[in-house]
Amino acid sequence: QVRFVESGGGWVQPGGSLRLSCLMSGIEFSLYQVAWYRQAPGYERELVASAFPNDHTNYADFAKGRFTISRIGARNTVYLQLNRLNAADAAVYYCNTNPPWMTAGDEYWGPGTQVTVSS
User: Fold this and answer.
1) What is the tens place of the pLDDT at every residue in 73-101?
2) Is 93 exposed, middle or buried (0-12, 13-18, 19+ CB in 10 A)?
3) Which H, E and C letters describe 31-83, residue by residue?
4) Is the pLDDT of residue 41 over 90?
């Protein structure tokens, strides 16, 4: 059974940092491009960063230079280091494959982890 469980979110002041983690079980982790997405209230979910099985990475423009994605195959885990956070980064952050995992014709999403940025 596929299960993605995100953790590590919380409240941080502008300029602060967080490290998000995601355990991705039920998939052949080493075969897939994995990614972090985020969704803020009133906005569509957007791709933040992705990591290929060969560790090549891609970032959305807003993430370049501030966020770092990494993956540990032995742990089926993907991380997202968030630095220099600002109010625009506040959102629920989700991990998934890229493109998102499909189950019975629908995209599967875990619960996500909330990131709040405020002073």
Assistant:
1) 889 999 999 999 999 999 999 999 999 99
2) buried
3) HCCEEEEEECCCCCCEEEEEECCCCCEEECCCCCCCEEEEEEHHHCEEEEEEC
4) yes
